[in-house]
Amino acid sequence: MVLVSVRDYEQRAHEIVPRNALDYYRSGAGDELSLRLNRTGFDRLRIRPRMLQGGSKRDLTCTVLGERFALPIAISPTAMQRMAHPEGEVANAKAAANRQVLFTLSTISTSSIEEVANATPNAPKWFQLYIYRDRKLTEGLVRRAEKAGYRAIVLTVDAPLFGLRRADMRNKFSLPPHLT
Ligand SMILES: Cc1cc2nc3c(=O)[nH]c(=O)nc-3n(C[C@H](O)[C@H](O)[C@H](O)COP(=O)(O)O)c2cc1C
């Protein structure tokens, strides 16, 4: 099948990604009420047509922290991408770089900070940080991101503890052993 939309990719993923990983990616916490509300929320958005405004010169470019991007939309941090594809975060970062879109690397990535930086040396990237109780470990991550040229730290503040992910509980979710 030719994949032409996000929904097509999602459907394909349902066919080929192992259950353990797929459920981790697709599930929400508890009864998944917020997940459903978010979907409904996005479905409510409409694009307002603006006719006879001279649409031949369209421009979605924007500047964020002094860097120019093609879209005012960035790739937010999502964990453990190599469960879906052997290149994982590296492929995602390369795709973002090709399209001049901002990529954010998750703390819980399955490609290292340096691997992703080396694969996309000229593209601005951000690094998402969880604050661990082990402050030395936390600082170590910040220093590595800084050294590897990440331009900003994206601080996650809504995870004092992880959600009750029932799909993961049912699957006894764990990272496949070939990944770190
Ligand atoms: C599978 C998955 C993994 C995620 N992993 C992380 C993560 O590692 N760190 C983080 O700060 N946020 C993580 N998030 C949260 C996203 O970055 C984002 O904030 C959230 O999904 C809301 O955006 P959305 O409505 O576009 O999905 C994850 C979300 C999903 C769905």
From TrEMBL:
Q: Which CDD domains match?
A: alpha_hydroxyacid_oxid_FMN (cd02809)
Q: Which SUPFAM superfamilies match?
A: FMN-linked oxidoreductases
Top-rank taxon = Eukaryota
- One GO term of the cellular component aspect? peroxisomal matrix
Q: Which GO terms describe its biological process?
A: fatty acid alpha-oxidation
Cofactor(s) recorded for this entry are: FMN
Name the keywords, alphabetized: Oxidoreductase
Q: Which GO terms describe its molecular function?
A: (S)-2-hydroxy-acid oxidase activity; FMN binding
Q: Which residues form the FMN hydroxy acid dehydrogenase domain?
A: 1-180
Against Pfam families, the record matches this protein to: FMN_dh (PF01070)
Q: Which family does it belong to?
A: Belongs to the FMN-dependent alpha-hydroxy acid dehydrogenase family.
What's this protein's name? FMN hydroxy acid dehydrogenase domain-containing protein
